[in-house]
# Entry
Amino acid sequence: MTSPEPMLTLDGVAKHFGGLRVVESLSFSVRRGCCTGLIGPNGAGKTTVFNLITGVYPIDAGRIVLDGVDISRLPSRRRIHHGIARNFQNIRLMPHLSALENVLVGQHCRNSGWRGVLQPVNLVPHNRWREEARSALADAGLAGYERATVRNLPYGVQKRIELVRALMAKPRLLLLDEPAAGLNPAETDAPRDQLSDICSERGITLLVVEHDMHFVGALCEQVVVLNFGCKIAQGTPDEVREDPLVREAYLGLETVPIEQAEQHQIEQRHAS
# Structure
């Protein structure tokens, strides 16, 4: 049974860039061992929230608590050691390396010193780091791509490899920025099932930014909705779908289904 205790808590978090208030008095919790969605219109502040949690940006007010520890002032590299990992909206794999080599890179944060940094990529063919990376690819159904150069692989496969690389950090909390972006409906099945297994079988807590509400509804138990850096709703996927503030935030019309509003947002992003 999932513990009711939160893995992550944001308490009154704020971030301003000059006179621009990007995140304002934001408070919400992410339950341990659960998948929580973070949604909102374009420019709502979702990726900024990820950057605050991971320490890319310092917060201006409030606090961020991970598993009972206040990490608000910790540098980003130390937050990794506390169990936070993430992916990015745009794929950040090394295109000239193989799938296996990219996954090996994800192990570096678990090593210290020069010897530790070099261990995962040393020339010993069967060292434990390499075998662990091979096993991770196989578990994700990607063993056939182990030696393939990443730049030559389909976009959907690259996104799945990036997820495997993030998992090599052995996180307790995994932040995913649009894991289904750029994928057609058929291609979303594999990453959605993979994420569901990560949460239910490994006990890793997930916080997911995503525009595909079908993806969110199938994966997430709770959803937090942002607009202009403020929380306007929180609840189950069905509850936020019916929330008039959420519908109004997307298109200014309370009667528009949220899936239609999200599709409009996606089309606007692609057009720009």
User: Anything to note?
Assistant: The longest helix spans residues 189-202.
